[in-house]
Amino acid sequence: MSDYPVTPAGVRMGEPPPHQPDLTRHVLVAEDDEDICQLNAQVLVQLGCRVDTAADGAAAWAALQRTRYDLLVTDNNMPKMTGVELLHKLHAARLAVPVIMATGILPREEFDRSPWIKPAAVLLKPYTITELLRAVQAAMRLTAPETSGQSQTNADRPPLRGDATASEPANPLPPVPPPATDGQANV
């Protein structure tokens, strides 16, 4: 694994890697499996995102109340609060954060009962790094990057409109390379 800076939610990250001088996207990764959490976070940092991590749903919810994120990548089956419960809280609080649910078991019944909580994308484990990158790019199209590059708390500004018709961000993420033909690592 590389030495890219990844921090627990709410802790300021170190300097960006030299090839990504403008880390304007802020992503929260909520995952109780430490290895998967770190791999997802490192992939996102290499993509040019600032990344915070949370080891469970309750920690993720606390971070979402403190900090404005451009994307949430969450597992479903986590201690203290599931990913579905986290989605319900986001909806109730009117926090329009695009969500990628990366989970081993799709909570189809929950999404059928509450279609308004469906995430922007779902990745079923095991998934490839390329699948994660493509889901991130698609979800990031729902939000534009901060012009100042600084995070604000949700109390400091109105929630984003999670509108799929939003214009393309001014600073889009780099293109995802095509899938390797000789196999890829699964997350």
Order of helices and strands: EEHEHEHEHEH
Give a quick account of the main beta sheet: strands, pairing sense, barrel closure.
Answer: 6 strands, parallel
> What spatial form do the alpha-carbon principal axes imply?
globular
Helical amount among residues, as a percent range?
25-40%
Oligomer: single chain
Mean pLDDT: 75
How large is the share of residues in beta strands? 5-15%
Give, in spatial order, the strands making up the sheet with the most strands: 1-3-2-4-5-6
Low-confidence segments, given as residue ranges, are: 10-22, 145-174
Mind telling me the C-alpha Rg? 15 Å
Tally of separate helices: 5
Work out the number of β strands. 6
What does this structure look like?
Helix content is 27%, strand content 14%. It contains five helices and six strands. A six-stranded parallel β-sheet has the order 1-3-2-4-5-6. The radius of gyration is 15 Å and the shape is globular. It starts with 6 loop residues before the first strand and ends in a 47-residue tail after the last helix. The relative contact order is 0.16.
